[in-house]
Each structure stands twice: as structure tokens, then as C-alpha cells.
Write a structure and sequence with these properties.
Elements: H1 11-32, H2 36-59, H3 66-69, H4 73-80, H5 92-113, H6 131-165, H7 170-176, H8 192-210
Helix pairs in contact: 1-2, 2-5, 2-8, 5-6
Amino acid sequence: MQATGSALWDIPTRVFHWLIVCCVPLAWWSAETENYEAHQWIGYTVITLVVTRIAWGFFGSQHSRFRDFVVGPGGILAYLRGQGSVSVGHNPLGGWSVLALLSLLLLQAVSGLFNSDDVLFSGPLYYAAESGFRDAMGVVHEVAFNVLLGLVCLHILAVLYYQLARGENLLGAMIRGSSEGRQGLSAPVPWWRALVLLAVFALALWWGLEQAPQPAPVIW
Ligand code: HEM
Ligand code: HEM
């Protein structure tokens, strides 16, 4: 497919990516140091970013849309047989890894809302759920992080493989928008639309969590 020279990854897609790359280690570090005040805010940021990215998969620029890069088993097999990719953006395997990463990030952060350290901190939905569900979410929060780490390692190894062994400058495109041989086929949609979506989702999350039941007051 011939590219025309537009950005392959629009500004919101790139900003989303590098913010997520900052948030995940920060979330891990804040949990390790038991700074749950910071941990929860990083988690809310992740939820808002991921939900915005998912919406951007429908309303964003051509190559950020899911329909541009999510293909069925036939497309994956064709790619594995060396018949190339239908998208100039994520290849068929990369497309599914994007879906897996986004789902896991969301599962990780949403399960945290029901979590508690059993001492001083409880997530905002802790008192909204039955204890069985909370326990399950506690396990999910722990297990999902390990799966996420595994997937992130695979993701970085895959990027390095394409970058170093196959000479495709994936990293340059994720930083600058495009790179040699990695350019978009159409002009990006205005970036501020992503900001509107982000603001709407942040407000919806804030409002939703405000409605959550609080612990019953302790009467001495
Ligand atoms: C916490 C760690 C990371 C997570 C959760 C993550 C997640 C993702 C996601 C969800 C995408 C899809 C972007 C989109 O379409 O919105 C992506 C793409 C990409 N990521 Fe990461 N990423 C991580 C770390 C890194 C690191 C450290 C690098 C640099 C080595 C990197 C390089 C890239 C590149 C180059 C792409 C574009 C791939 C392509 O052209 O198909 N990522 N990443
Ligand atoms: C992507 C976002 C998040 C990541 C990567 C993350 C990661 C982690 C990790 C690695 C731990 C330590 C392992 C464990 O005990 O489960 C942890 C614990 C915890 N997280 Fe998160 N978390 C995220 C979001 C959240 C959110 C949004 C909340 C609540 C508002 C939350 C609440 C907690 C709590 C209460 C613990 C302590 C659990 C315990 O002591 O057993 N997390 N998180």
C-alpha cells in the first residue's frame, strides 16, 4: 500500500501511549511503597486514558481506529504466511496485542477500585460489592499485573525485533508520528476531539465514583 506522508500515529495516540508507559511503573512503585493515595490517582488516570483510547478506536484518525488494524484469523494466517499486512499501522498480530494490552490495563485498574490493603486504604467501590466479589477482584488485581508484565515484555521485544532485525522504525513513528516507510494514508482528525472525550470520561468517572456507598460510620 502506498503512503501519502501524513502522520501514522496522531498526537492523542502517541500522548496516550507514552503516558501509559509512565503510569504503569508509577502504579507498581506506589503499590510497592504502599502510597495508595498516589496509587489510586494513577489508577484513575489509567482508566480515563484507556477508555479515551478505546473511544479513539472508533472516532480517531484512520490508523488508530480498530477497524484499521483488527483482523480475523484469515488475516492473521495470511500475515504469518508472509502475505503482508492490510494496515500500514499495527500488523494483524500487533493489532490483537493492542486489544489485549488495553483490556488488561482496564481490568487491572477497574479491579483496583474494589481492592483494599486490609489496613488503611480501600478503593472507592470497596463498599459497593459483596465480600466474595471483592476477594475475587483482589486476586484479579494481583494476577492481572503479572500477566500485564509478561505482555509488556513481549510487546517491547516485538518492537525491538521489528526495529533492529527488520529495520522498521516503529519507535520513530510512535515518537514523531511517522518515520521512513511508516506514514499514514489520510490526514489525522483534530487532536482536540480526544481532549473533549478525555474530559467527558474523567468527569463521568469522578461522578460515578462519587455515587459509591461509603463505609457505615463507627459508633463508639
Ligand atoms: C507499560 C508499558 C507499555 C504498554 C502498556 C504499552 C502499550 C502499547 C499499546 C496499547 C500500543 C498501541 C498504541 C495504540 O494504537 O494506541 C503500543 C504501541 C507501541 N508501543 Fe508500547 N507499551 C508499553 C511500553 C513500550 C515501550 C517501553 C516501548 C519502546 C520500546 C514501546 C513502543 C511501542 C511502539 C513503537 C508502538 C507502535 C507499534 C506499531 O507500530 O505497531 N511501548 N504500546
Ligand atoms: C493500571 C493501574 C494499576 C496498576 C498497574 C496497579 C498495580 C498494583 C500492584 C502491582 C499492586 C501490588 C500487588 C497486589 O497486592 O495486588 C497493587 C495493589 C493495590 N492496588 Fe493497584 N494498581 C492499579 C490501579 C489501582 C486502582 C485504581 C486502585 C484503587 C483506587 C488500586 C488499589 C490497590 C490496592 C488497595 C492495593 C493493595 C492490595 C493489597 O494490599 O492486597 N489499584 N496494585
